[in-house]
Amino acid sequence: MKEYIQSQIKASIDTKTSLLADEKLLGLIAQAAKDIIAAYRSGKKTITAGNGGSAADAQHIAAEFVSRFYFDRPALPSIALTTDTSALTAIGNDYGYEYLFSRQLEANGQKGDFYIAISTSGNSKNILKSLEVAKKMGIRTIGLTGKSGGKMKDMVDYWIGVPSDETPRIQESHILIGHILCAAVEKELFEKEYRK
Q: How many Å apart are CA 110 and CA 19, to the nearest integer?
């Protein structure tokens, strides 16, 4: 059992080491952070979505923007499209599961907002449908996926494909990237005035 646990930890470290060594991915994360900062400075918001574990990651990222990350500062507007059970069940029942996020994005998104779409495979139908809506509405997009990127990689402004094919390793890196984005935004917008 100890060896198995060690192998799981090592696999997680190896994935993050690969991420750390990928200059192109690091550059994409940095540029995405800059664009999210610009969106917030323009009075816009972030919107997040995903299925299953990626839904939990979407909610986690939105919560970090709304509440706080490293220090107390003003709240930042962020909506996770995975949290409203009435909307989710109504849309699922009336339109189909494929429309869960696109319908909410149509209702709550605005031109200039930033949408963080999460799918380990890059092929979740409801995420793909929402990305079509985001493009029509002028909403900027980040796609967090695994190594292959699926269909998402060609549909987003920033494709950040974690260098792994294993769902747990991908999800662990997705929340790391989410944390980096939150920290970078918080630091740039508020550190000088609010961090003691």
A: 32
Q: Which two tokens stand for residue 153?
A: 């990689």
**What does residue 44 show for φ and ψ, rounded to 5 degrees?**
-95, -175
Tens digits of residue pLDDT in 44-75: 999 999 999 999 999 999 999 999 999 999 99
Beta-ladder partners of 114:
46, 140
Question: H or E segment at 148?
Answer: none
Per-residue pLDDT of 87-122, as tens digits, reads: 999 999 999 999 999 999 999 999 999 999 999 999
* Domain encompassing residue 189: 2-194
CA 195 – CA 80 distance, rounded (Å): 26
Quickly count helices (H) and strands (E) in the chain.
7, 5
Q: Which of 76, 74, 50 is nearest to 63 (CA)?
A: 76
Measured from the Cβ of residue 159, the count of other Cβ atoms closer than 10 Å reads 20
Which CATH number do you get for residue 53?
3.40.50.10490
- Domains identified in the chain, total number: 1
